[in-house]
Amino acid sequence: MAYRIRRLILPLCAALFGTLAQADESIVLASTTSTDQSGLFGYILPRFEAKTGIKVKVVALGTGQALDTARRGDADVVLVHDRPAEDKFVAEGWGVERRDVMYNDFIVIGPKTDAAQVKATKDVVDGFRRIAAGSAPFISRGDKSGTHAAELRFWKTAGIDPKAWSGYKEAGAGMGPTLNMSAALGGYTLADRGTWLSFKNRQDLEIVLAGDKRLFNPYGVMLVNPAKYPHVKKDAGMKFVDWITSREGQETIAAYKINGEQLFFPDAKN
Amino acid sequence: MLDTFLEALSLLGRLDEHVLAIVWLSFKVGLSTVTLATLIGLPLGALVAVASFPGRSIATVVLNGMMGLPSVVVGVIIYLILSRSGPLGGFGLLYSPPAMILAQTVLVVPLMAALTRQIIEDAWREYANEFRSMRFSLRHTIVSLLYDCRFSLVVAVLAGMGRSLSEVGAVMIVGGNIEGFTRTMTTAIALETAKGDLPLSLALGMVLLSVVLVLNAGAYNLRQWAMRKYG
Predict the structure, then answer these.
(1) Which residue segment(s) compose the domain that A79 sits in?
(2) How far is the alpha carbon of A35 from chain B, nearest alpha carbon, in Å?
(3) How far apart, in whole angstroms, are the C-alpha atoms of residue A220 and residue A218?
(4) Would the ipTM clear 0.95, i.e. be above it?
(5) Mind listing the pLDDT tens digit for each residue in B136-161?
């Protein structure tokens, strides 16, 4: 009996593991939920893969987590949106060849009833003050993402310590779950436009504030330093960095639209 | 609520190859995990049931306790081990199906071993004197008991398969939920929920449930057939 089982199991294991192994050239791209869940990667990556034959494996995390993943050497390329954290990452020698890629903007989302009257202002810091003075909660990402970092900068500029306010709730989650929570609680939140446009469970939420130039949200790409981690796929990774900042890559980013609305605006300096 | 449910049902009607690929990957990872975990967990459970060694009751408690091991914890530990800066980083296994199989095996082995221990211990009580009088070696005893209890042990294997197919914490962390490569049914459901696409995540949930039910029905029938044939 034991031999019969062994004869059956070994080829089974071999077959299963065999099909799981992949020989194609690939890179791991640590990026943010905003670029992945908005559908941008689903649109632009097949074009890159068709051109170069390099498969891009996207691991979508918050910006802080994506940079940490790269610091541990678990990614080849990083595409994130938190300029101060990116500069620190490069200055510490973890990343090289940092380039601007594109931008979109943050927007303040809130319930249609807008009890805190955020719609009455065009100034994001004033809007944050109004939210903190109101009764509706504010749902923070609370996950060290680029959006979370931007939100904390606005609170700081407003001179408010959000943690001292009982209406401040940290979701500790990605943009989507945070929006789900805001919808359920009738609260305000800071979101990136891309995720908002592709988000489906909006219920009573809408944009209550947009257009302040401080809501500008730039994305940068960089290669994980091959001098720190020799296994980093330098050539394939650089091909991606070069392509996404090339004219073709930039035009592809600009061509991605949801319901006729452009989500990301290319701004690489060629 | 009802609308979401009805929309989910209509989505089931047009499952594309994309979704089927996700189901297939879940299935492959689950089957590999259970195969490995069966080879490790069943003998381990039987050993704890039969062998007398100091600390046997502690081993039993630990095994039972580890049935409730949170999958996220296993995920983080395996992540740190497989990370490029971890001890096994040189293999470059992180964010790949083998990493997912490894994490799930760690998760499922205690569950299957604990269930096996319970089943084998009950049988052992019945046969202990008989086996002793025949002077069976420990190895021979374990093999015979596992063979005798094979129909009951199907439960342990099914429990392992169920846990493997339904857990999301470990595969998310060590697999990375990479589209077309490490995205399973559970991580896809988590992703669609995050995107606010509740009908699609519910539809995927129904697929997951159906797969688990079909597997269980298959195992049940196999067991009935085998019991009739071999008694």
Answers:
(1) 23-104+218-266
(2) 12
(3) 7
(4) no
(5) 889 999 999 999 998 889 989 999 99
